[in-house]
Amino acid sequence: MGLRCGMRTTKCQQLVTSLCVMLLGLSIATLSTVTHYGLHFTLISDISLESNSYRVIHHTAFYFGICLSMTLILAALLSSAATVRESQCLTAMGFFCFALAFCGLIPAACWRYTHSTEVEDSMMDVYDLVYEEVRRNASSFRRHELTAIHEAFLCCGKHSPFGDMANIESKTCPSGQVRDTGQDCLQQIQDFLKKHMDFVFTLLGITIGFTIYGMILTSFLWFSIHFSSNLDRKGKYILRER
């Protein structure tokens, strides 16, 4: 009786956890798509040089996010089906998908912690490159790219040791955009990315928590199904005719 009650409780928790994991998987897929195709990110990616690491990070993050979201959604579907059908095979497959997602989430969280400024630095390097090329040659094709950055990030120029850049900024800043002397485009890019990456890190942390809980529930459910099956068979005999 106690085993049946515990199993019923585990199944309810498993279904709720599976729903949350599926929503998290969809959230990661949406965030990956927005990050990959969003105006701010695609603009910097298209402008960046081959030697700049941002383009690699940009594409890697998208494919990693899509694969991770698919793994989480698959884990949620398998664990839900295993809960309803009380299948040991489906439960084991669900546990494997949770473990696979966990193995991807931990390196991602560690990379975010150990390379906290790499994305910001690479994006600001792109802006510095474009700005300096326009400063040296006002007729450069980079002028249109600099204008696009200013319009995307709603900023205007940067603090420069080379003196007044009013001539460049008047030609590349959006019409009617007044530059805030206390904040330049580099600061705007840094603030934008900090908010974005903080949101990503929070989402990863929540997903890791639900993934661990899903692994615990699926393993407990597997053992519950296993022992319940053994108890059902206990005391049953088959009489054979002699």
Protein described:
This protein is an all-alpha fold and 242 residues long. 79% of the residues lie in helices and 0% in strands. The chain has helices spanning 2-37, 39-47, 54-85, 88-114, 118-136, 142-153, 166-172, 185-233. Helix 5 (118-136) packs across helix 6. The longest helix is centred in the last third of the chain and has 49 residues, at 185-233. Residues 231-237 have low confidence and may be disordered.
**Total number of strands:** 0
Reported for the largest beta sheet, the result is:
none
Query: Which structural class do the helices and strands define?
Result: mainly alpha
Low-confidence stretches: 231-237
Overall geometric form: rod-shaped
Average pLDDT reading: 84
Give the terminus-to-terminus CA distance.
37 Å
Strand percentage lies at under 5%
Count of discrete alpha- or pi-helical segments spanning 4 or more residues: 8
List the secondary-structure elements in sequence, H or E: HHHHHHHH
- Helicity range: over 70%
Radius of gyration: 27 Å
What's a concise summary of this model?
The chain is mainly α and 242 residues long. The protein has helices spanning 2-37, 39-47, 54-85, 88-114, 118-136, 142-153, 166-172, 185-233.
